[in-house]
Amino acid sequence: MSSPIRLDHLTGIRSLLALWIVCGHYLPHEKPTSFLAASTCRSFMAVDVFVVMSGFVTHWAYGDRLQKGELRIRQFYVRRMAGIVLTTYIAMVLSLIVVIMVPEFRNSFMPSALTLLGCFSFLAHWVKPSAWCPAPPSWTIEVLIPSWLLYPFTRRLVDGVDSRAGTPGLVLLIAALHALSFGPLLLLFLLQGFKLTWVQYATDFFWPPSQLADFAIGVVAAALAQKSAIPDNCREEGHREAEETGALHGYSWQGLLADLSFFGTAAVVIWMPPPANRAECETNESALLTHGLALPIAAWLALSVHGGLVARILSHQALVALGNYSSEVYLFKWPLVALFHHVFQQWPLPLDVFMAFLLLLWLLSGVYVEFLAPPLVRHLRASLELFIDWLQVHATKSEGWVAGSCRGRRRAICSCRCHRGSVS
């Protein structure tokens, strides 16, 4: 079984995205009148990159194996979700402990028992998109879980379009998905005189169904990338080279287009007119960025498998090493910054304290990933596999019992009918 081509640059960019989010939330900031400050306050864009990239990586890593039957759907679910859900629960428990222990937070953030139930069952944002849960970034995992659960069916849809219409069909599909994702928000923006409220932004961003199309865009982008990544006549050689280098570099024009997509997306975020204040960072035209840039993001993901300047830089081992801890940095940032706020009694944190927080956050995330997570995830996956096997065995026994019972009832009915016939 051949393994998928390793794409180190996608791990490398995760480190920058996590840094962007942390700085956007907690870095001491001025009014977003400068272009750099405006881009920092629009750090929510990094989450949209994560969503599209999750669809891309999921299809890149699992699509072919699911299609060939080398991986069962239940194995996909366990491998894709067990580790990140466990980490999310740990972050939520740590956040809840901090909230309970600090009176200031307990009075401000303590959710109701019903909200807690919704948070731990990943349903809170289905009911109220702006709900506050322990470890607030857990909303991202909540919106991705439906996409992961639906992925086997999404893959079949994408494969069906590819088999019937090829590349043009996939291009039309990705355009339709973007219209479905971005169209309603754009229409609302136009109808309201180029205005969008924060509530509308939150509904279009935090509500789980709102991210299904962006995830699917990433899936289609991965399908397009796989069709062009390695020519059929040099698949083995290209695959071997890709495993050694982490990306393909044979098609310079595609790498150039990837770089143009990357820099074009960054330019829109940086050079879009800055909002008047921090409260407007997620309203009006800035709110359009939640889905508006999904296509250029997908284009960069699909084209960057061929290399390019940006892919080469992001493949640097320093960025890749930091990117391995990005999910944990994202999930653990709230309980740690809450502790820093409680200890230093300042908000926002002074710059030197913020730097200490940032370094400690990455260090603790690295310790968790390298030493704590592997045995925990390994035991969780094994337990889930055993539990699923147990359910299947008992389901089979139940089906056999029901079938046997039905056959027995049929024989009894037939015997009764025959007896009545003989008497008459």
UniProtKB/TrEMBL annotation:
<dbReference type="GO" id="GO:0016747">
    <property type="term" value="F:acyltransferase activity, transferring groups other than amino-acyl groups"/>
</dbReference>
<dbReference type="GO" id="GO:0000271">
    <property type="term" value="P:polysaccharide biosynthetic process"/>
</dbReference>
<feature type="transmembrane region" description="Helical">
    <location>
        <begin position="43"/>
        <end position="62"/>
    </location>
</feature>
<feature type="domain" description="Acyltransferase 3">
    <location>
        <begin position="10"/>
        <end position="361"/>
    </location>
</feature>
<feature type="transmembrane region" description="Helical">
    <location>
        <begin position="256"/>
        <end position="273"/>
    </location>
</feature>
<feature type="transmembrane region" description="Helical">
    <location>
        <begin position="83"/>
        <end position="102"/>
    </location>
</feature>
<protein>
    <recommendedName>
        <fullName>Acyltransferase 3 domain-containing protein</fullName>
    </recommendedName>
</protein>
<feature type="transmembrane region" description="Helical">
    <location>
        <begin position="170"/>
        <end position="191"/>
    </location>
</feature>
<feature type="transmembrane region" description="Helical">
    <location>
        <begin position="12"/>
        <end position="28"/>
    </location>
</feature>
<feature type="transmembrane region" description="Helical">
    <location>
        <begin position="327"/>
        <end position="347"/>
    </location>
</feature>
<dbReference type="GO" id="GO:0016020">
    <property type="term" value="C:membrane"/>
</dbReference>
<dbReference type="Pfam" id="PF01757">
    <property type="entry name" value="Acyl_transf_3"/>
</dbReference>
<keyword id="KW-0812">Transmembrane</keyword>
<keyword id="KW-1133">Transmembrane helix</keyword>
<dbReference type="InterPro" id="IPR002656">
    <property type="entry name" value="Acyl_transf_3_dom"/>
</dbReference>
<keyword id="KW-0472">Membrane</keyword>
<feature type="transmembrane region" description="Helical">
    <location>
        <begin position="353"/>
        <end position="373"/>
    </location>
</feature>
<dbReference type="InterPro" id="IPR050879">
    <property type="entry name" value="Acyltransferase_3"/>
</dbReference>
<feature type="transmembrane region" description="Helical">
    <location>
        <begin position="293"/>
        <end position="315"/>
    </location>
</feature>
